[in-house]
Design goal:
The protein is mainly β. Helix content is about 5%, strand content about 50%. It has one helix and 18 strands. The strands form five sheets. It has a four-stranded antiparallel β-sheet with strand order 1-2-3-4, with no helix packed on it. A four-stranded antiparallel β-sheet has the order 5-6-7-8, with no helix packed on it. The chain is globular.
Length: about 220
Amino acid sequence: MEIVQCSRVEGIHYKLIPGQTRFAVGYTDYEDFVSMPDWLEQGGYQGSEIRFLDLEDNTVWVPFEKRRNVLYGNALLSEGKLWFLRGDFNAGTVTLIAFRPGDRPEEIHSIPVSEVNLYNLQILPDPVHIVSQSDELRCYYPEAFRIPLEPNETAEIIDGDTVWCSAWMEEGVEEGRLTESYRYYETTVAKDRRGNVLSRQTGDLNLFYDGVWRLS
């Protein structure tokens, strides 16, 4: 068995970024944004690093060194750049970063922490949007809007004026118990920016390694 050693070997788990086969992302810690207020009340958080592994040459890229009370969100590849969120709770900001390996990271847009919902704060494709999700989808960048979400819905893509959501469904549950006719499946719901349902169909919407969204 051949084992290829990366440029930095430190026990970090990397996961392939959806829609391509070249870059994977890893973190030195998996704390999320919504937990930061509790950390700050307890004296602060050690901080984390986001790292990117280039599978073409096995180089590990670290855009920023670790700093106390700073952590990072999910990553996407768009327009030939790696995009991610940085939460800097020293400065009280959430910043969208674009990074092309080998170049300096670009700070694209910053929002005060006080103006965002930290629950499920993330970026969606494509183009890149900054959103949070709970009982509603709130979009902060590049435009501000919000729409209600059902408890089983999660927004996956914002494409122009259409928000594509996945919604899990269960059938065959009686009085809290599963029957022999039980069925679990995914549906895809398209909504406009006012929250009106444009379409609803059975199918799981996923971005595959070749950059194609498929309904399966």
